[in-house]
């Protein structure tokens, strides 16, 4: 990944510093106000102590400390590599188990949504016929009723192949008018309306035809009432089961999140593995640690920050020692380089830098979450709709409207910090005036100057005191 392009993308000017003696070039970091660099090499001193010395010193001056990078690489034949890979393998096994189970349950989620879609389609026909009962019998529409009668003839009576069906009797017994009379009959509120309808047809049609007609209409009416209850019961059951199934998926996703973070930290940094400092036959490792210490003063909707960015690069020889009765850990001995860079940043600039580091470091978690996210996105808004209905049903509320949008979408609920939706910027109800904006800008510059001066002083004091406390030359 080109660091220069990435810095330009997030609005930072790249630092130009001395790369080798007498030669200057880009460092891959934003240009600081001031920077301090120190190299330290020791054959017997653990290099963990200097890191905590600097961290504790900066904590005394700045209330906010955020770790931005923590990555390592180890040579393939080192003992440290073997221990790290054992831990990595255990984490990956857990991830594969959880993701396999989650994938299977997401596949079942597709089938549930499909079944609920079919149930909704059927219930629309029942609701359409039911709504017509509010009108007078001669004004009732027959669209939904005719569709249900077609299902009844095909699924219950066996269609034209059965001699006992409406079509079969018309063909075998020559009740030619029976299908027309059956399908033209309007929805009936009760049995009495059905009987009155048959009596009104008595003057125009044969009694044998009417006796068969009343039998078929009565059977259809009973079938429609019973199947309507069954579909509503099935819908309630499926909604409850869908919500339960979704909560289990969410539980598995929450379980797998820590393992994904652990894997990203245990994965060897590819850039360090390719450098000449890392030799496969040697006992060696390289570690990169970065944290941001800052103080913030709020100004309007934003804030001014005096920042010290501490960056550590280790090239060490890890020695595995028994730290306790049951735990074997590595003590790192070798060379350390640390740099303290001083910045005066707004809240927006700090957020941009964090996004830059996330884009650079969290590619593994992004790929895994996006693969699961893509499968969930393909379900569309229907899953959101059904889940909202299920929650409202569980809470005893009225049934949701046709396409309600929940406050939190499925992807936000499942992935949380793994998923960052594209949200439209909210318009402020009362936009600040030009005078107010100028006042805030002047205040921001004034506060930033004071914070920047403090950060510059703390950076220098930390650097100078570290050299004094470790017996180095100072001035």
Write the layout of secondary structure elements.
Blueprint: H1 3-9, E1 14-20, E2 23-30, E3 34-46, H2 48-61, E4 64-74, H3 79-132, H4 143-156, H5 166-172, H6 178-184, H7 191-201, H8 207-266, H9 270-273, E5 285-299, E6 302-322, E7 328-346, H10 347-361, H11 363-377, H12 381-394, H13 410-415, H14 434-469
Antiparallel strand pairs: 1-2, 3-7, 4-5, 5-6, 6-7
DSSP summary: helix tally: 14
Mean pLDDT: 77
Q: Quickly count the domains.
A: 2
Write down the secondary-structure element order. HEEEHEHHHHHHHEEEHHHHH
Q: Compute the gyration radius: what is it?
A: 36 Å
* Fraction of residues in β-strands: 15-25%
Number of strands: 7
* Uncertain residue ranges: 362-366, 398-406, 424-429
Would you tell me the structural class of the helices and strands?
alpha+beta
Strand order of the largest sheet: 3-7-6-5-4
Helix fraction, binned, reads 55-70%
Q: What multimeric state do the chains show?
A: single chain
User: Which geometry do the CA atoms define?
Assistant: elongated
Distance between the termini: 40 Å
The major pleated sheet works out as: 5 strands, antiparallel
Describe the structure.
The protein has 2 domains: 306 residues, no CATH class; 117 residues, no CATH class. The protein contains 14 helices and 7 strands. The strands form 2 sheets. A 5-stranded antiparallel sheet has the order 3-7-6-5-4, sandwiched between helices. A two-stranded antiparallel ribbon has the order 1-2. A hairpin with a 5-residue loop joins strand 6 and strand 7. It starts with a helix and ends in a 6-residue tail after the last helix.
């Amino acid at each position: 990944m080109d660091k220069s392009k990435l810095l330009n993308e997030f609005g930072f000017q790249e630092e130009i510093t001395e790369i080798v003696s007498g030669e200057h070039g880009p460092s891959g970091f934003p240009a600081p106000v001031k920077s301090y660099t120190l190299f330290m090499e020791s054959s017997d001193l653990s290099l963990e102590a200097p890191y905590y010395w600097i961290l504790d010193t900066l904590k005394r001056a700045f209330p906010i400390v955020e770790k931005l990078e923590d990555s390592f690489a180890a040579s393939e034949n080192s003992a440290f590599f073997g221990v790290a890979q054992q831990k990595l393998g255990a984490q990956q096994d857990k991830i594969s188990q959880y993701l396999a189970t989650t994938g299977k349950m997401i596949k079942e989620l597709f089938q549930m949504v499909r079944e609920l879609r079919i149930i909704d389609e059927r219930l629309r026909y029942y609701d359409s016929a039911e709504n017509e009962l509010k009108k007078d019998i001669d004004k009732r529409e027959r669209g939904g009723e005719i569709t249900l009668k077609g299902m009844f003839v095909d699924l219950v009576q066996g269609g034209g192949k059965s001699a006992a069906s409406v079509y079969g009797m018309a063909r075998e017994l020559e009740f030619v008018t029976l299908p027309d009379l059956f399908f033209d009959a309007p929805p009936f509120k009760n049995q009495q309306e059905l009987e009155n309808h048959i009596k009104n047809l008595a003057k125009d049609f044969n009694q044998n035809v009417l006796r068969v007609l009343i039998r078929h209409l009565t059977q259809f009416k009973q079938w429609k009432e019973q199947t309507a209850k069954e579909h509503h019961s099935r819908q309630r059951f499926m909604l409850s089961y869908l919500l339960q199934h979704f909560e289990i998926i969410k539980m598995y996703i929450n379980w797998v999140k820590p393992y994904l973070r652990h894997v990203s930290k245990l994965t060897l940094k590819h850039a360090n593995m390719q450098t000449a400092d890392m030799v496969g036959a040697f006992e060696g490792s390289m570690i990169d640690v970065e944290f941001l210490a800052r103080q913030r003063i709020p100004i309007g909707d934003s804030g001014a920050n005096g920042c010290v960015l501490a960056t550590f690069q280790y090239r060490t020889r890890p020695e595995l020692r028994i730290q306790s009765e049951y735990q074997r850990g590595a003590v790192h001995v070798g060379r350390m380089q640390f740099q303290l860079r001083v910045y005066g940043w707004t809240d927006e600039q700090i957020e941009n830098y964090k996004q830059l580091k996330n884009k650079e470091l969290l590619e593994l978690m992004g790929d895994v979450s996006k693969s699961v996210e893509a499968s969930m996105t393909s379900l569309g808004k229907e899953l959101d709709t059904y889940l909202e209905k299920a929650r409202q049903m569980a809470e005893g509320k009225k049934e949701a409207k046709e396409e309600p949008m929940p406050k939190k979408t499925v992807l936000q609920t499942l992935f949380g910090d793994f998923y960052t939706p594209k949200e439209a910027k909210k318009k402020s109800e009362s936009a600040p005036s030009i005078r107010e904006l100028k006042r805030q800008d002047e205040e921001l510059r004034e506060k930033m100057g004071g914070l920047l001066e403090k950060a510059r002083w703390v950076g220098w004091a930390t650097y100078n005191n570290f050299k004094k406390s470790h017996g180095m030359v100072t001035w």
